[in-house]
Amino acid sequence: MDLHYLKLFHVLALQGSFTKAAESLHISQPALSVQIKKLEGQLGMKLFDKVGNKIALNENGKLLSGYTQQIFALVDEAEHILLNKTECIIGSVNVGGSNTPGAYILPKIIGEFKSLYPKVEVNLHIANTDETAHMVINGQVDFAVNGGNLPYNHSICIEKLMDDKAVLAASPLNRLSEKEFVKPSDFADINFVSHETNSYLHKFLENFIQEMKIPSRIAMKFGGIDAIKQAISADLGISLLPYSAVSFELKSGLIKELRIRGKSWSYPYSLIYHKNKYLSPAVKKLMEMVRTRMYDLRIPPK
């Protein structure tokens, strides 16, 4: 019997519903149904009875469920013991990150992780949002933190981590930076600077421009956030960027935040990984630290 199929059966038996089990497993309901049928085909017997729109374990299913509960209780126990033995956390971890989390959030978390688990080699791969998703699909990274709301391939598991405050960033030299609040009409002759077209940050800025009904004046596009910030500081244009990317410049006065009365925007980050990829103890430890540390960042800055 395939252990993967047994895991799916185990979750379905506990949840008692294809819908709930599929959500818990981060797969589609049809995909779960197909794989349960494959398990029944391997065993040569049905495991569930259908009662109206509901399912219930039959005698075969109840018997198998008793064993899977023992099997996965032992798996959980072994995993817990191994994950809490620091000397067992070794190997390498490949992490992906889109531009903002990759450059401004993950390095600090990885540094903390390395201090706790010095025997683990961590490699961070930074790319735009689409490229980061492809790295997960192709198995180039163990997991990634990606920005934006993307439609993902069905093979990817997605966990929402946090919403970052979005900042309408301008140079202190820009005439609008002197205002307590700005209005959409103030942007009529203002240039915007943006990330490259295939980045979600570019789409994010475009959505803002459309929402505010501002004439689209994206004058310059750059391949990295640092270049965008330099352009903003030089008053070549303004942009909408995640707070994590501009926090230093805001605190040091190199960039000013423009505010529109009654309006705010947020930029989401998600943890993504391939549902069929083996996650080593080291990978799981780093994933858990990413969840915890990014949860701590959820409170929006004042």
UniProtKB/TrEMBL annotation:
The lineage of its organism: Bacteria, Bacillati, Bacillota, Clostridia, Eubacteriales. Keywords: DNA-binding, Transcription, Transcription regulation. It comes from Formimonas warabiya. PANTHER family: HTH-TYPE TRANSCRIPTIONAL REGULATOR (PTHR30126), HTH-TYPE TRANSCRIPTIONAL REGULATOR CYSL (PTHR30126:SF39). It comes from the Bacteria. One of its GO terms (molecular function) is DNA-binding transcription factor activity. SUPFAM superfamilies: Periplasmic binding protein-like II, Winged helix' DNA-binding domain. Residues 1-58 form the HTH lysR-type domain. Belongs to the LysR transcriptional regulatory family. It holds the Pfam family HTH_1. The keyword Transcription regulation applies. This is HTH lysR-type domain-containing protein.
